[in-house]
Amino acid sequence: MIRTRDLTKHFRVGKETVEAVRGVDIDVAEGELVALLGPNGAGKSTTLRMLTTLLEPTSGTAVVAGRDVRAEPARVRRRIGFVGQGHGAGEDQRAGEELYTQGLLYGLGRATARARTAELLDVLELSGAADREVTRLSGGQRRRLDIAMGLIHRPPLLFLDEPSTGLDPHSRANLWEHIARLREKSGTTIVLTTHYLEEADGAAGRVLVIDHGRVIADGTADELKAGVSGDLVSFTVADGGSAATGAEIAGRLPAADGVEAVSGREPGVRLRVERGDAVLPELLRALDASGVAPTTVRVQRPTLDDVFLALTGRSLREENP
Ligand SMILES: Nc1ncnc2c1ncn2[C@@H]1O[C@H](COP(=O)(O)OP(=O)(O)OP(=O)(O)O)[C@@H](O)[C@H]1O
Protein backbone atom coordinates (compact mmCIF):
# COMPACT_ATOMS: atom_id res chain seq x y z
CA MET A 1 0.00 0.00 0.00
CA ILE A 2 2.89 2.34 0.78
CA ARG A 3 6.51 2.15 -0.21
CA THR A 4 8.94 5.00 0.36
CA ARG A 5 12.63 5.03 -0.30
CA ASP A 6 14.98 7.63 1.10
CA LEU A 7 12.06 10.03 1.47
CA THR A 8 13.42 13.40 2.52
CA LYS A 9 12.03 16.85 3.28
CA HIS A 10 14.08 19.94 4.00
CA PHE A 11 12.58 23.33 4.82
CA ARG A 12 14.41 26.58 4.26
CA VAL A 13 13.87 28.89 7.20
CA GLY A 14 15.76 32.10 6.49
CA LYS A 15 19.34 30.99 5.98
CA GLU A 16 18.87 27.78 7.91
CA THR A 17 17.82 24.40 6.55
CA VAL A 18 15.52 22.32 8.74
CA GLU A 19 15.94 18.62 7.95
CA ALA A 20 12.43 17.59 8.96
CA VAL A 21 12.51 14.12 7.34
CA ARG A 22 15.85 12.51 6.61
CA GLY A 23 15.76 9.52 4.27
CA VAL A 24 12.84 7.45 5.44
CA ASP A 25 12.04 3.95 4.11
CA ILE A 26 8.51 2.87 4.96
CA ASP A 27 6.63 -0.21 3.77
CA VAL A 28 2.99 -0.71 4.66
CA ALA A 29 1.04 -3.73 3.42
CA GLU A 30 -2.66 -3.82 2.65
CA GLY A 31 -4.84 -4.06 5.74
CA GLU A 32 -2.18 -2.99 8.22
CA LEU A 33 -2.69 -0.47 11.02
CA VAL A 34 0.57 1.39 11.48
CA ALA A 35 1.34 4.08 14.04
CA LEU A 36 4.09 6.63 13.59
CA LEU A 37 5.25 7.35 17.13
CA GLY A 38 7.66 10.07 18.13
CA PRO A 39 8.12 13.26 20.14
CA ASN A 40 7.03 16.71 18.98
CA GLY A 41 8.97 17.85 15.95
CA ALA A 42 10.17 14.32 15.06
CA GLY A 43 8.86 14.62 11.51
CA LYS A 44 5.64 12.59 11.74
CA SER A 45 3.28 15.17 10.27
CA THR A 46 5.75 16.13 7.55
CA THR A 47 6.01 12.46 6.54
CA LEU A 48 2.23 12.15 6.50
CA ARG A 49 1.84 15.32 4.48
CA MET A 50 4.25 13.99 1.83
CA LEU A 51 2.41 10.67 1.68
CA THR A 52 -0.89 12.48 1.21
CA THR A 53 0.56 14.74 -1.53
CA LEU A 54 0.08 17.91 0.53
CA LEU A 55 3.81 18.51 0.54
CA GLU A 56 6.33 17.76 -2.18
CA PRO A 57 9.33 15.70 -1.08
CA THR A 58 12.77 17.31 -1.39
CA SER A 59 14.10 13.96 -2.61
CA GLY A 60 13.39 10.25 -2.50
CA THR A 61 10.35 8.33 -3.69
CA ALA A 62 6.94 7.46 -2.32
CA VAL A 63 4.40 5.17 -3.94
CA VAL A 64 1.06 5.38 -2.19
CA ALA A 65 -1.95 3.22 -3.10
CA GLY A 66 -0.16 2.16 -6.26
CA ARG A 67 0.78 5.64 -7.55
CA ASP A 68 3.82 7.84 -7.25
CA VAL A 69 3.04 10.91 -5.11
CA ARG A 70 5.08 13.18 -7.32
CA ALA A 71 4.07 11.88 -10.75
CA GLU A 72 0.37 11.30 -10.06
CA PRO A 73 -0.72 13.27 -6.99
CA ALA A 74 -4.35 13.55 -8.13
CA ARG A 75 -4.66 9.78 -8.50
CA VAL A 76 -3.11 9.22 -5.09
CA ARG A 77 -5.61 11.67 -3.58
CA ARG A 78 -8.54 9.85 -5.08
CA ARG A 79 -7.44 6.61 -3.44
CA ILE A 80 -6.72 7.89 0.06
CA GLY A 81 -8.55 9.56 2.91
CA PHE A 82 -6.83 12.11 5.12
CA VAL A 83 -7.95 13.44 8.47
CA GLY A 84 -5.68 16.25 9.60
CA GLN A 85 -5.18 17.71 13.05
CA GLY A 86 -7.74 20.49 12.69
CA HIS A 87 -11.44 19.87 12.23
CA GLY A 88 -12.42 19.26 8.63
CA ALA A 89 -16.11 19.65 9.26
CA GLY A 90 -17.73 23.07 8.86
CA GLU A 91 -19.46 24.94 11.66
CA ASP A 92 -23.08 25.56 10.85
CA GLN A 93 -24.06 22.52 8.81
CA ARG A 94 -25.77 19.52 10.30
CA ALA A 95 -23.54 16.46 10.71
CA GLY A 96 -25.42 14.31 8.19
CA GLU A 97 -25.58 17.08 5.58
CA GLU A 98 -21.91 17.81 6.00
CA LEU A 99 -21.06 14.21 5.24
CA TYR A 100 -23.48 14.05 2.30
CA THR A 101 -22.02 17.25 0.82
CA GLN A 102 -18.54 15.81 1.15
CA GLY A 103 -19.75 12.79 -0.83
CA LEU A 104 -21.04 15.03 -3.64
CA LEU A 105 -17.75 16.91 -3.54
CA TYR A 106 -15.94 13.65 -4.20
CA GLY A 107 -18.15 13.08 -7.23
CA LEU A 108 -20.52 10.50 -5.79
CA GLY A 109 -24.05 10.50 -7.22
CA ARG A 110 -26.83 11.68 -4.90
CA ALA A 111 -28.19 8.23 -4.13
CA THR A 112 -24.71 6.83 -3.52
CA ALA A 113 -23.75 9.80 -1.34
CA ARG A 114 -26.92 9.37 0.68
CA ALA A 115 -26.39 5.62 1.14
CA ARG A 116 -22.74 6.06 2.02
CA THR A 117 -23.61 8.80 4.53
CA ALA A 118 -26.11 6.54 6.27
CA GLU A 119 -23.62 3.67 6.32
CA LEU A 120 -20.82 5.75 7.84
CA LEU A 121 -23.11 7.39 10.40
CA ASP A 122 -24.11 3.91 11.43
CA VAL A 123 -20.59 2.43 11.65
CA LEU A 124 -19.31 5.42 13.60
CA GLU A 125 -22.40 5.54 15.80
CA LEU A 126 -23.41 9.01 14.73
CA SER A 127 -26.88 8.25 13.42
CA GLY A 128 -28.48 9.85 16.49
CA ALA A 129 -26.45 13.01 15.92
CA ALA A 130 -27.08 13.28 12.16
CA ASP A 131 -29.44 16.25 12.51
CA ARG A 132 -27.32 18.08 15.04
CA GLU A 133 -25.26 21.08 14.01
CA VAL A 134 -21.57 20.27 13.85
CA THR A 135 -20.75 22.80 16.60
CA ARG A 136 -23.10 20.99 18.96
CA LEU A 137 -21.34 17.64 18.70
CA SER A 138 -19.11 16.41 21.52
CA GLY A 139 -15.33 16.32 20.90
CA GLY A 140 -15.44 12.57 20.29
CA GLN A 141 -18.43 12.77 17.94
CA ARG A 142 -16.79 15.54 15.98
CA ARG A 143 -13.61 13.54 15.61
CA ARG A 144 -15.65 10.59 14.35
CA LEU A 145 -17.40 12.86 11.88
CA ASP A 146 -13.98 13.97 10.60
CA ILE A 147 -13.05 10.32 10.12
CA ALA A 148 -16.35 9.65 8.31
CA MET A 149 -15.55 12.57 5.99
CA GLY A 150 -12.17 11.02 5.20
CA LEU A 151 -13.88 7.74 4.33
CA ILE A 152 -16.82 8.96 2.25
CA HIS A 153 -15.28 7.88 -1.08
CA ARG A 154 -14.31 4.43 0.25
CA PRO A 155 -10.55 4.89 0.11
CA PRO A 156 -8.59 1.70 0.71
CA LEU A 157 -6.05 3.75 2.69
CA LEU A 158 -6.77 6.25 5.46
CA PHE A 159 -4.31 8.65 7.10
CA LEU A 160 -5.08 10.08 10.53
CA ASP A 161 -2.89 12.81 11.99
CA GLU A 162 -3.09 12.57 15.79
CA PRO A 163 -6.70 11.39 15.77
CA SER A 164 -7.17 11.36 19.53
CA THR A 165 -5.36 14.54 20.57
CA GLY A 166 -7.60 16.74 22.70
CA LEU A 167 -10.04 13.96 23.59
CA ASP A 168 -10.61 12.79 27.15
CA PRO A 169 -9.50 9.21 27.96
CA HIS A 170 -13.03 7.83 27.63
CA SER A 171 -13.58 9.36 24.17
CA ARG A 172 -10.12 8.20 23.15
CA ALA A 173 -10.89 4.60 24.05
CA ASN A 174 -14.23 4.92 22.27
CA LEU A 175 -12.55 6.31 19.14
CA TRP A 176 -10.21 3.34 19.07
CA GLU A 177 -13.10 0.94 19.30
CA HIS A 178 -14.60 2.62 16.27
CA ILE A 179 -11.35 2.50 14.33
CA ALA A 180 -11.05 -1.22 15.13
CA ARG A 181 -14.64 -1.86 13.98
CA LEU A 182 -14.05 0.06 10.82
CA ARG A 183 -11.06 -2.09 9.96
CA GLU A 184 -12.98 -5.24 10.68
CA LYS A 185 -15.80 -4.19 8.41
CA SER A 186 -13.95 -2.69 5.50
CA GLY A 187 -10.32 -3.83 5.80
CA THR A 188 -9.13 -0.23 5.38
CA THR A 189 -5.38 0.21 5.74
CA ILE A 190 -4.71 2.89 8.35
CA VAL A 191 -1.60 4.97 9.00
CA LEU A 192 -1.72 7.36 11.91
CA THR A 193 0.54 9.54 13.99
CA THR A 194 0.43 9.67 17.76
CA HIS A 195 2.56 10.58 20.68
CA TYR A 196 0.48 8.59 23.12
CA LEU A 197 2.56 5.55 24.01
CA GLU A 198 -0.42 3.56 25.24
CA GLU A 199 -2.21 4.05 21.95
CA ALA A 200 0.66 2.91 19.80
CA ASP A 201 1.10 0.00 22.14
CA GLY A 202 -2.45 -1.20 22.39
CA ALA A 203 -4.11 -0.39 19.13
CA ALA A 204 -1.54 -0.41 16.37
CA GLY A 205 -0.39 -3.57 14.69
CA ARG A 206 2.97 -2.06 13.88
CA VAL A 207 4.84 0.90 15.28
CA LEU A 208 7.41 3.02 13.49
CA VAL A 209 9.39 5.02 16.02
CA ILE A 210 10.48 8.31 14.51
CA ASP A 211 13.05 10.67 15.94
CA HIS A 212 14.87 13.60 14.36
CA GLY A 213 13.41 12.82 10.94
CA ARG A 214 14.46 9.17 10.87
CA VAL A 215 12.77 5.83 11.50
CA ILE A 216 14.79 4.46 14.41
CA ALA A 217 12.72 1.32 15.03
CA ASP A 218 10.06 -0.63 13.14
CA GLY A 219 8.06 -3.60 14.40
CA THR A 220 5.10 -4.71 16.46
CA ALA A 221 5.09 -3.26 19.96
CA ASP A 222 6.02 -6.71 21.28
CA GLU A 223 8.94 -7.07 18.87
CA LEU A 224 10.30 -3.64 19.72
CA LYS A 225 10.13 -4.36 23.42
CA ALA A 226 11.69 -7.82 23.11
CA GLY A 227 14.52 -6.47 20.97
CA VAL A 228 15.55 -3.70 23.30
CA SER A 229 15.43 -4.60 26.91
CA GLY A 230 13.77 -7.98 27.50
CA ASP A 231 11.23 -8.75 30.22
CA LEU A 232 11.91 -8.30 33.88
CA VAL A 233 11.10 -11.48 35.83
CA SER A 234 11.09 -11.25 39.61
CA PHE A 235 10.06 -13.51 42.45
CA THR A 236 10.08 -13.20 46.19
CA VAL A 237 10.99 -15.95 48.66
CA ALA A 238 10.74 -16.46 52.41
CA ASP A 239 14.36 -15.68 53.38
CA GLY A 240 17.75 -14.47 52.16
CA GLY A 241 19.13 -18.01 51.95
CA SER A 242 16.42 -19.05 49.51
CA ALA A 243 17.07 -15.88 47.51
CA ALA A 244 20.73 -16.82 47.10
CA THR A 245 19.80 -20.36 46.01
CA GLY A 246 17.07 -18.95 43.73
CA ALA A 247 19.55 -16.59 42.07
CA GLU A 248 21.95 -19.46 41.46
CA ILE A 249 19.20 -21.53 39.85
CA ALA A 250 17.95 -18.60 37.76
CA GLY A 251 21.53 -17.97 36.61
CA ARG A 252 21.63 -21.45 35.07
CA LEU A 253 18.76 -20.65 32.71
CA PRO A 254 20.26 -20.26 29.25
CA ALA A 255 18.26 -17.13 28.44
CA ALA A 256 18.82 -15.30 31.73
CA ASP A 257 20.66 -12.02 31.94
CA GLY A 258 21.54 -9.69 34.82
CA VAL A 259 20.44 -12.11 37.54
CA GLU A 260 20.55 -10.56 41.00
CA ALA A 261 19.44 -11.62 44.45
CA VAL A 262 17.53 -8.95 46.34
CA SER A 263 17.93 -8.82 50.09
CA GLY A 264 15.99 -6.79 52.65
CA ARG A 265 12.43 -7.03 53.88
CA GLU A 266 11.22 -8.76 50.73
CA PRO A 267 14.07 -11.03 49.67
CA GLY A 268 13.88 -12.33 46.12
CA VAL A 269 15.51 -12.53 42.72
CA ARG A 270 15.37 -10.36 39.59
CA LEU A 271 16.49 -11.27 36.12
CA ARG A 272 16.07 -10.17 32.53
CA VAL A 273 15.02 -12.59 29.81
CA GLU A 274 13.83 -12.04 26.29
CA ARG A 275 10.43 -13.67 26.79
CA GLY A 276 9.37 -13.85 30.42
CA ASP A 277 6.25 -15.87 29.74
CA ALA A 278 8.27 -18.53 27.92
CA VAL A 279 10.92 -18.85 30.63
CA LEU A 280 8.62 -18.86 33.64
CA PRO A 281 7.50 -22.53 33.57
CA GLU A 282 11.08 -23.76 33.34
CA LEU A 283 12.19 -21.42 36.12
CA LEU A 284 9.39 -22.56 38.43
CA ARG A 285 10.16 -26.23 37.78
CA ALA A 286 13.86 -25.68 38.54
CA LEU A 287 13.08 -23.78 41.75
CA ASP A 288 10.66 -26.47 42.86
CA ALA A 289 13.21 -29.23 42.23
CA SER A 290 15.64 -27.44 44.58
CA GLY A 291 13.03 -26.84 47.27
CA VAL A 292 12.77 -23.09 46.71
CA ALA A 293 9.12 -21.97 46.92
CA PRO A 294 8.44 -18.47 45.57
CA THR A 295 5.79 -16.48 47.44
CA THR A 296 5.08 -14.11 44.54
CA VAL A 297 6.12 -14.13 40.86
CA ARG A 298 5.98 -11.22 38.40
CA VAL A 299 6.73 -10.72 34.72
CA GLN A 300 6.98 -7.10 33.64
CA ARG A 301 7.04 -6.32 29.96
CA PRO A 302 9.07 -3.26 29.02
CA THR A 303 7.01 -0.32 27.78
CA LEU A 304 7.45 1.49 24.47
CA ASP A 305 8.93 4.28 26.53
CA ASP A 306 11.70 1.87 27.66
CA VAL A 307 12.26 1.18 23.96
CA PHE A 308 12.52 4.88 23.11
CA LEU A 309 14.76 5.48 26.12
CA ALA A 310 17.08 2.65 25.11
CA LEU A 311 17.28 3.95 21.53
CA THR A 312 17.70 7.66 22.24
CA GLY A 313 18.62 8.08 25.89
CA ARG A 314 15.52 10.28 26.26
CA SER A 315 12.04 9.56 27.51
CA LEU A 316 9.02 10.20 25.33
CA ARG A 317 7.01 10.94 28.45
CA GLU A 318 9.25 13.84 29.41
CA GLU A 319 8.84 15.37 25.98
CA ASN A 320 5.10 14.79 25.79
CA PRO A 321 3.76 15.28 29.29
N1 LIG B 1 6.47 24.45 6.93
C1 LIG B 1 7.54 24.33 7.69
N2 LIG B 1 8.56 25.21 7.64
C2 LIG B 1 9.65 25.07 8.38
N3 LIG B 1 9.85 24.07 9.26
C3 LIG B 1 8.89 23.15 9.37
C4 LIG B 1 7.69 23.24 8.60
N4 LIG B 1 6.91 22.17 8.93
C5 LIG B 1 7.59 21.48 9.87
N5 LIG B 1 8.78 22.06 10.12
C6 LIG B 1 9.82 21.57 11.07
O1 LIG B 1 10.10 20.23 10.73
C7 LIG B 1 10.30 19.44 11.90
C8 LIG B 1 9.32 18.27 11.92
O2 LIG B 1 8.01 18.76 12.14
P1 LIG B 1 6.70 17.84 12.14
O3 LIG B 1 5.53 18.72 12.29
O4 LIG B 1 6.75 16.94 10.98
O5 LIG B 1 6.90 17.01 13.46
P2 LIG B 1 5.88 16.07 14.21
O6 LIG B 1 6.64 14.85 14.56
O7 LIG B 1 4.66 15.90 13.42
O8 LIG B 1 5.55 16.87 15.53
P3 LIG B 1 4.14 17.11 16.27
O9 LIG B 1 3.92 15.89 17.08
O10 LIG B 1 4.44 18.30 17.12
O11 LIG B 1 3.11 17.36 15.23
C9 LIG B 1 10.17 20.39 13.07
O12 LIG B 1 11.44 20.84 13.43
C10 LIG B 1 9.34 21.52 12.51
O13 LIG B 1 9.61 22.72 13.17
UniProtKB/TrEMBL annotation:
UniProt cross-references to SMART domains, sorted A to Z: AAA (SM00382)
Protein location: Cell membrane
Main location: membrane
Keywords, in A-Z order: Antibiotic resistance, ATP-binding, Nucleotide-binding, Transport
Annotated InterPro entries: AAA+_ATPase (IPR003593), ABC_transporter-like_ATP-bd (IPR003439), ABC_transporter-like_CS (IPR017871), ABC_transporter_ATP-binding (IPR050763), DrrA1/2-like_C (IPR025302), P-loop_NTPase (IPR027417)
GO molecular function: ATP binding; ATP hydrolysis activity
Gene3D superfamilies per the UniProt record, alphabetical: P-loop containing nucleotide triphosphate hydrolases
Membrane-traversing stretches: none
Membrane topology: Peripheral membrane protein
Domain ABC transporter: 2-237
The keyword ATP-binding belongs to this UniProt entry's keyword annotation: yes
GO terms of biological process kind: response to antibiotic
GO CC annotation: plasma membrane
Protein name: ABC-2 type transport system ATP-binding protein
Lineage per the UniProt record: Bacteria, Bacillati, Actinomycetota, Actinomycetes, Streptosporangiales
